[in-house]
Specification:
single chain, 398 residues, Nucleotidyltransferase, domain 5, 14 strands, globular
């Protein structure tokens, strides 16, 4: 079964076409990215047989963007598919499933309506996903559409974990609670580590570190707790997001600068985090370079983030009552040698030690802890698209 996996952001579409022979056997046929959708500078990238091809093609919206991707797949030039009928299902990554959409599911009328209602839960993230789903429903009307949610994996959290200490009616009436995100990545890493160890009864703390970042405490393959909250803003500091702060800061700053709620929301989501502290960039590669050249604010941004991440790891050791594996995933987790080392340095008080020689590699699945470390440390490159394709395969075959 050939499965198209789409990850629609605010102005981009990441896509992969995967041939699933069965749930375990798969082949990546092609992948690419459509950037700057809605502008005259829209660019489409496609990768075939290791060759990356860039195409300048303005797309005014997601429907035009997805239509161009589909045209490319059946074009005479590339001959990736003979017909769009070969696509057995389309998997859509959706960040927030809300209260009712708690597992991967086929998009029908009821689910479609629920997705619309959930826009307020994560307006930036879910808007693109919904646009992508609706575009595919028009362009591929006879192909099953499957939604896979980042929030699904965290449905196993207990009420004592997800409930906020706020008036209870907020939860009852408005479902204000911790939901957690990056669940597709955390779930993939948990499954992969279970394969590596040959057992599922593991206590794992997975660090998904990228521009957006979160940690997850996983026991027996289930999420016990995670750093993100009702929205992807909470938890550890990120590229442009503040992470956890004293909530009283928000009304105080709003009064000082006469900000509206939307303006304040924009600041803590898009103008905070490493960008704000370093004063340089939201790209951690730029910050690492500046720090190596003696920039004190850049170094402060890196040190502060590592300190907070290590604190959360310690907290999750309490959650799990121990830890077997600490894993790193995501763009920075997989490639940030310095970041991994900075974080793990704080864990030596637990008898957990990183091997700096083993750690000196990027983007590879590997064990990087020292012999005798009380917990293993792993790098596990995440593969959210494969996990989405597996869910599509299961649901379509049912």
């Amino acid at each position: 079964m050939k499965i198209l996996v789409l990850n629609c952001g605010s102005s981009s579409i990441k896509y992969q076409l995967i041939d699933m022979e069965d749930k375990k056997t798969h082949k990546l046929i092609t992948k690419g990215n459509y950037e700057m959708i809605g502008t005259q500078n829209s660019k489409l990238t496609i990768k075939i047989n290791g060759e990356k091809i860039k195409i300048d093609h303005p797309a005014k919206d997601f429907e035009e963007g997805i239509a161009e991707i589909l045209n490319l797949l059946v074009s005479d030039e590339y001959k990736i598919l003979n017909s769009l009928d070969e696509i057995g299902g389309v998997g859509h990554r959706v960040v927030h499933g809300g209260v009712n959409l708690i597992k991967s599911c086929l998009v029908d009328e009821k689910v479609h309506e629920e997705l619309k209602q959930n826009l307020q839960m994560a307006p930036v993230h879910n808007k693109g996903s919904l646009a992508g789903i609706e575009a595919c429903m028009k362009l591929l009307p006879n192909t099953p559409m499957i939604t896979v949610f980042d929030t699904s994996f965290h449905q196993t959290m207990e009420p004592k974990v997800y409930l906020y200490q706020l008036p209870y009616e907020y939860y009852e009436k408005h479902k204000i609670r911790k939901y957690g995100f990056h669940g597709i990545s955390h779930r993939y890493v948990a499954q992969r580590l279970a394969e590596i160890y040959g057992r599922n009864d593991l206590k794992i703390i997975n660090c998904h570190l990228g521009q957006g970042a979160s940690l997850c405490a996983i026991k027996d393959g289930k999420s016990m707790d995670t750093t993100m909250g009702m929205t992807p803003l909470a938890g550890i500091p990120m590229g442009t997001r503040s992470g956890d702060i004293d909530p009283s800061i928000i009304p105080m700053v709003m009064k000082i600068y006469n900000y509206t709620p939307d303006e304040m929301n924009d600041i803590i989501n898009k103008k905070s985090g490493a960008l704000a502290v370093s004063g340089i960039s939201a790209d951690f590669r730029d910050i690492e370079e500046a720090a190596s050249n003696g920039n004190e604010r850049a170094q402060l941004a890196l040190d502060s983030r590592a300190y907070i991440i290590a604190q959360y790891i310690a907290k999750f050791i309490v959650t799990l009552q121990g830890v077997d594996v600490i894993s790193f995933a995501g763009g920075i987790g997989e490639n940030g040698l310095e970041e991994r080392e900075r974080i793990c340095k704080y864990l030596e008080c637990f008898g957990i030690y990183i091997d700096t020689t083993l750690n000196n590699q990027k983007g590879k699945e590997m064990k990087i802890s020292k012999e005798g470390s009380k917990a293993d440390i792993y790098v596990v490159p995440t593969n959210e698209e494969l996990l989405i394709a597996q869910d599509v395969y299961d649901i379509v075959n049912k």
